[in-house]
Task: structure prediction
Amino acid sequence: MPELPEVEALREFLGGRLVGRVVERVVPLAVSVLKTYDPPLHALEGQPAGPVARYGKFLDLRVGELHLVTHLARAGWLRWQDSLPAQPPRPGKGPLALRLVLDGGAGFDLTEAGTQKRLAVYVVRDPQEVPGIARLGPDPLADGFDRDAFAALLAGERRQIKGVLRDQGVIAGIGNAYSDEILHAARVSPFKLAASFDEEEVTHLYEAVRSTLRSAVERAHGLAAGQLKAEKKSGLRVHGREGEPCPVCGDTVRSVSFADSSLQYCPTCQTGGKPLADRRLSRLLK
Result:
């Protein structure tokens, strides 16, 4: 799933290619992708493409007086082409969900792999009309997001810190992969209750949030859209690396079920050397 660093890189990439161009046509190819109908999608056609913004994991392309907002979900992606095929694509069962063509023939496709279709596109007059944007918590890389603001989010939270970091209503833009990376950098168990952090632990975790995300954004800076997935994977230290040695201590990275997915962690760095119990597996064995 694209998270804050990749979406920020896409924002930068598209901004340098869309601003000053005119949207020639927008072609929806998957029935499930479009979540709004007023204004209609064709209202974007003939309008100038303006700046591109990011709200958490949402991309917002200004088109005339409207906004084309996209959430790539778990398996969506954006593929840029300097010259799109002249032949209009045909709706079907393939990964292509939407095509946007600019004057001159360049543009991008939105694609989604797999059978679970969660990629979402909205045409709105104001990004706050998108429910997912309206409920977002603060951006962790915003200038005003300081240590005290972070501490206030954790105060009274009786949930495990892994779930809190992933909750878009608490903090915008962090998903499964970067929450694993942040917790590894902070040397914190993903199952530790958020409200149990002392002052020093809050500070350490806050610094891990900022440094992990900033480092990922810097690595993705200037990359083309097609290079971002590989860059993300190469920069991850524990997420997706079950069975590999931890780059910090050499212990074996382990995996455990969490919510609707799995998380990866280092026992030596994060849990005092003790493997976490896989509660989902434990329930199945009863």
In short: Residues 186 and 205 are 5 Å apart (CA to CA).
